[in-house]
């Protein structure tokens, strides 16, 4: 479907100042952009809105690309709304949209969404071949009558924060760095499915998490985590890997919720990654592994204790 077709039935009561993008992660850079967007909209008496896509344009432009998402589309929408925007509109990015020239893209935003202004980052671009970069949008704004506000990139230790840098940190197990860029812990949500019962045999029954196939997964290892169950946050340890002591097998995500005895099968839980404790290791015996898990649990207790910054 074209951009015009997907926006054909949208009706807005007032003109809008917009931000456009995927907003995967809704990281600190996105948060700063939304804050500025709301300020610019308020100054002009306009609505503030985010126009976003369920899927990443790169998955359309690069067929076969497997791009792990930091946040599900539903979560992205909720996070953006929580930042106080008047409107969050999410559509599917399609090949037809990819072929839309920048001028036509902007004209459609003006016609269908009553767009009067855009807030963008320094590397932003829209339209076919990314033709609507900052320089092109400045010129279009003068010609077509909309304001353009360009923000400098938000930085973490001197490095620009982007969804790509957050993904890279998660994939390398730099969970604390990812959390600093996100402004909150990286979280995996999913259903608890049946496993092979190895955790229970070792004395540490685990919940086997099945996130969506499109989610990014942290590097294999053992993590101190918080697990949200039925609206309550509980301390936990989470193992990601192939369980080399017994295999190796398929990659799994197994969470041991400390001091919890409930039945979790079939429930939806969310795991917040706080600190990476160690690499995944192979042990010669199940007993040796059980002893190490007990140590992991104690390390996690310390890492999750109020005010504790170390895990020694």
Describe this structure in words.
The chain is of the alpha/beta class. The protein has 2 domains: 157 residues, HUPs (Rossmann fold, 3-Layer(aba) Sandwich); 119 residues, Elongation Factor Tu (Ef-tu), domain 3 (Beta Barrel), CATH 2.40.30. It is 33% helix and 27% strand. The protein has a 6-stranded antiparallel barrel with strand order 10-11-14-13-12-15. A 5-stranded parallel sheet has the order 3-2-1-4-7, sandwiched between helices. The chain has a two-stranded antiparallel ribbon with strand order 5-6. It is elongated, with a radius of gyration of 22 Å. The model has no long low-confidence stretch (mean pLDDT 93).
Task: Quickly give the CATH architecture of the largest domain.
Answer: 3-Layer(aba) Sandwich
Task: Please state how the strands of the largest beta sheet are arranged side by side.
Answer: 10-11-14-13-12-15
CA radius of gyration is: 22 Å
**Spans of at least 5 consecutive residues with low confidence:** none
| Mean pLDDT metric | 93
Residues in β-strands, percent: 25-35%
Helix amount:
25-40%
- State the secondary-structure class: alpha/beta
Tally of individual helices: 11
Q: Quick gist of this model?
A:
The chain has 312 residues and is an alpha/beta fold. 33% of the residues lie in helices and 27% in strands.
How would you summarize the topology of this molecule?
Blueprint: H1 3-6, E1 16-21, H2 28-44, E2 47-53, H3 57-61, H4 73-82, E3 87-91, H5 95-98, H6 102-113, E4 115-120, E5 125-126, E6 132-133, H7 134-144, E7 147-150, E8 155-156, E9 159-160, H8 163-171, H9 175-182, E10 186-193, H10 198-201, E11 207-210, E12 221-229, E13 232-241, E14 252-257, E15 268-278, H11 286-304
Parallel strand pairs: 1-2, 1-4, 2-3, 4-7
Antiparallel strand pairs: 5-6, 8-9, 10-11, 10-15, 11-14, 12-13, 12-15, 13-14
